[in-house]
Amino acid sequence: MQADAADEAILVEPLSPAVGLEIRGVVPDDLTDEQIAMLRDLWQVGGALLFRGCERPARGGATLARILAGDTLITVSASVPGGTEWGMVGADAPGSLPLVCVVATRTLDLPALNLAGMEAAADSLRLVDSNLLAEAQALHFAHSLDGPMLAVLQQHPISGATVLYPPPRRAAGKDAVALALVRTAEEPQFAYRHVWQPGDVLAWDPRAVRSMWDSAPAEDAAAFSVVRSATDAQLPATAPEWEMPL
């Protein structure tokens, strides 16, 4: 579709029915205020945004992270977001859930990254198995041995949408409802598999999107970041290095 709210040159194409939008016609480090506002709206609709052919992907990824985090104090970790099993990035860590995950690359050395839209999964349950959805209302699971207990159904803090937040399979144990939710989350209809091209910048919302790498990526194959909200007291003494070398 053609975005008419910010710039007629911007084209928006879905990556899959359940998650992701490809943005064409602009790069993330060269945006007007109107385009930034449009991207923030599209972020809530798509759960993931992809820009291709960026000449400076690391800079673009850093800029996009700041844009999508909004008007909030943020900290950034230059770590690889996610693992080789389906999971919600950051769900196993204490504190606030991450706001944004970003990967930016100049190479073809990255394994494929799989994303799955958990808002679409919750909507599907509402339509086809409302009893399972009702049983899940009171369930809480830790996503790791030391992780916090999190509800398997959450309300997205910005969109207000109900999002499925299933634990990993190993954390679900033998709980029949939890395992049914995990199976729902892993249905192919909710997934998108991203095969990387040089100059790709891909961001996703870990509060609404599950992720899984085909294999563990090398730390130097791309610029990775996980962005969290923070208070003044939590901010590091020195500002984070946004323009990561790539």
Any overview of this molecule?
The protein has 246 residues and is an alpha+beta fold. It is 24% helix and 24% strand. The protein is built from six helices and 14 strands. It has helices at 33-46, 57-69, 118-128, 130-136, 169-172, 176-185; strands at 11-14, 21-24, 48-51, 74-77, 100-105, 113-117, 140-142, 149-151, 153-155, 162-164, 191-194, 200-204, 209-213, 223-229. The strands form four sheets. The chain has a seven-stranded mixed β-sheet, with helices on one face. A three-stranded antiparallel β-sheet has the order 11-6-13. Helix 3 (118-128) packs across helix 4. The radius of gyration is 18 Å and the shape is globular.
Computed CA radius of gyration, to the nearest angstrom: 18 Å
Instruction: Look at the helices and sheets and give the structural class.
Output: alpha+beta
The ordered H/E elements are: EEHEHEEEHHEEEEHHEEEE
Distance between the termini: 32 Å
What would you call the shape? globular
Topology of this protein?
Blueprint: E1 11-14, E2 21-24, H1 33-46, E3 48-51, H2 57-69, E4 74-77, E5 100-105, E6 113-117, H3 118-128, H4 130-136, E7 140-142, E8 149-151, E9 153-155, E10 162-164, H5 169-172, H6 176-185, E11 191-194, E12 200-204, E13 209-213, E14 223-229
Parallel strand pairs: 2-3
Antiparallel strand pairs: 1-2, 3-12, 4-14, 5-12, 5-14, 6-11, 6-13, 7-8, 9-10
Helix pairs in contact: 3-4
Descriptive tags:
alpha+beta; 246 residues
Provide a quick synopsis of the model:
The chain has 246 residues and is an alpha+beta fold.
